[in-house]
Structure formats: C-alpha cells, structure tokens
C-alpha cells in the first residue's frame, strides 16, 4: 500500500526544501480519508509533483511514519475483520469442519491434499501443527466462503468410513490391482528414461511422480512389456534412473522454468506452479519427521 524512504539516504533534495533538511518520503494510493488522516498526523508534510510523494520533515520522520502506517494497517485489519464477521452472520457456513473462534475460524478436517491446497490460497490462513487445525481470520471470509464447497467435499471424501467404503468397493477389481502395481513400482524409486535425453543428477526436476532428484542412471535397459503400463511411451532404448524426494532447501534454491514442458515429456524443469505445492509438502514432511524425533 505504501512505501517510505529516507531523503537523507536516498534523495538529498526534498521538495520545497533546501536539501539539507532531514526527513522522509512517503507515497500511497490516493484516498481522501487516508490523505485527511495523514495531514492531521503530519501537518508540516508537503506534496511534491516531481517526486510523486509526500515529504515529512524531521530527523525522526521515518519512525513516525512507520508508527502511523502500523496504526492504519491495524485499523484496516479491524475493519476487514468486522466486515467478515458480519458477512458470516448474514450468510454463515454450516459445517462440522468449521468452528467460530475469537479472532476467526478454526477448521479441522481429515487430511486431504485438496483441502490443503485450497486453504493455502485463502489469505492469512495458517496451519497450527500442535492443535492440527487451520486458522482463518474473519477478514478472509469471502474467499473462504467461495472455496468452501470444494473444501467440504474433499473433507467428506477423506473421512475414514468413506475411504474404507471406497476401498471395499474397489477390492479385487482391475483398478484396485492396477493401483497396487503402480504403488509398488513407485516404491522402487526408479524411473524409465530415454537414453539420449537424461535429466541432470542431483537437481530437482519434474516427472509424472512429481518433483524428484535423480541420484543415479544405472544403464540397465527397461523391459517395455513389464512396465509399459506405468510409463507411457516407454521403448527398448529406455534405461532406469533412480530418484529420491527433494529437500525443502533444494526446492527453495531451484529456479522455476520460464516455459512449459513439451508435450509427452518424460521429465522437465519445474514451473513455479509446480514448485510452490512441492515446497509446502516438503516443509510439512520435514516438520512431521522432526516431530517424531525423540
């Protein structure tokens, strides 16, 4: 919303001043009420058309501006929270997964990647690992309300009874057997790669398994008749590569690709849309690992 800079440090010629007078600049989108509040707080401030900013004189100008900005933001948050609380009272979410708290909403659902992804998109939401609930402030109600049908549907799909019912229905079917074979193949941490298009070793890349780090290319030829169901387009010139999951640090250091992968690519450099959820998953995985450490 706003930005400030010290005229002494970044621009030695404040507007309308002799250049030696200390002070700080501040600029913000025009709003009549905000300008009135600003002028009441800083009656000696002067506007500069050339700099498109207000100049506040004084050696403590930066600190005084900082305090005023913090107050304005707190007022804006309080207003937004009140608006969100009123919106909830007028059009409430009636769900066993949502509770009303003092500062907002408390959301507890069975684990679902869809729920996690949706709540990550709600502004100011945060996960409480100790209580194992999500906190969402009142100010984010409109976005939460918009996403709630998908959140609740995913939560209901992942209730233990519902998962057991679906598993019982699938038991013994061709789909069930195929899923078990695919899961067993993934647990081998190997991947079919075209011998003349190999990924870099030790660097996160994207695959049909998500983002992985290849640790070794064995040179062992793949048998398409055995694993053709798991790797579309696999041929006799494919070899096995072995992989592990990336660490949070590796994912943070990975620069996102600027272009989308080519069609039917076996591996590619990850985009920012792929890196963001992978980073969240890696951080959650590491947090769970530390929580289990005695």
Brief write-up:
The protein is an alpha+beta fold and 294 residues long. It has helices at residues 7-10, 32-41, 61-90, 113-120, 141-157, 160-170, 174-187, 224-227, 248-253, 272-292; strands at 3-6, 23-27, 46-48, 53-57, 98-100, 104-107, 126-128, 133-137, 190-194, 204-207, 210-221, 238-244. 43% of the residues lie in helices and 20% in strands.
Summarize the structure in words:
This protein is an alpha+beta fold. The chain folds into three domains: 3-77; 92-160; 181-292, no CATH class. 43% of the residues lie in helices and 20% in strands. The protein contains ten helices and twelve strands. Strands 1-2-4-3 form a four-stranded antiparallel β-sheet. A four-stranded antiparallel β-sheet has the order 5-6-8-7. Strand 7 and strand 8 (133-137) form a beta hairpin. Residues 1-18 have low confidence and may be disordered.
Q: Can you tag this structure with a few keywords?
A:
single chain; 294 residues; 3 domains; 4-stranded antiparallel β-sheet; 10 helices; flat
Low-confidence stretches: 1-18
Helices, by number, come to 10
Number of domains: 3
- Average pLDDT metric: 85
Form type: flat
Termini separation: 45 Å
The major sheet is characterized as: 4 strands, antiparallel
> How many beta-strand runs?
12
Sketch the topology as an H/E string, one letter per element.
EHEHEEHEEHEEHHHEEEHEHH
Structural class comes to alpha+beta
Helix content: 40-55%
Rg of Cα set: 28 Å
**What fraction of the residues are assigned to beta strands by DSSP?**
15-25%
Strand order, sheet with most strands: 1-2-4-3
């Amino acid at each position: 919303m706003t930005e400030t800079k010290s005229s002494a440090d970044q621009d030695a010629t404040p507007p309308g001043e002799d250049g030696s007078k200390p002070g700080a600049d501040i600029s913000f989108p025009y709003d009549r009420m905000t300008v009135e509040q600003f002028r009441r707080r800083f009656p000696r401030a002067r506007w500069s058309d050339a700099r498109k900013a207000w100049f506040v004189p004084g050696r403590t100008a930066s600190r005084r501006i900082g305090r005023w900005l913090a107050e304005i933001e707190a007022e804006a948050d309080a207003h937004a929270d009140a608006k969100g609380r009123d919106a909830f009272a007028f059009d409430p979410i009636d769900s066993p997964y949502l509770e009303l708290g003092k500062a907002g909403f408390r959301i507890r659902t069975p684990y679902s990647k869809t729920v996690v992804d949706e709540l990550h998109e709600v502004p100011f939401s945060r996960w409480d690992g100790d209580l194992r609930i999500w906190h969402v402030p009142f100010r984010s109600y409109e976005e939460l309300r918009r996403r709630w049908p998908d959140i609740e549907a995913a939560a209901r799909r992942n209730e233990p009874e519902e998962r057991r019912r679906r598993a019982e229905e699938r038991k013994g079917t061709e789909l069930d057997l195929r899923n078990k074979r695919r899961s067993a193949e993934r647990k081998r941490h190997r991947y079919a790669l075209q011998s003349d298009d190999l990924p870099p070793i030790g660097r996160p890349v994207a695959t049909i398994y998500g983002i992985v780090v290849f640790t070794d290319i064995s040179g062992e030829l793949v048998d398409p008749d055995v694993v053709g169901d798991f790797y579309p387009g696999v041929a006799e010139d494919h070899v096995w590569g072995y992989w592990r999951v990336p660490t949070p640090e590796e994912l943070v250091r990975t620069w996102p690709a600027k272009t989308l992968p080519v069609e039917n690519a076996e591996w590619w450099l990850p985009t920012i849309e792929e890196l963001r959820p992978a980073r969240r998953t890696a951080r959650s995985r590491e947090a769970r690992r530390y929580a289990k450490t005695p």
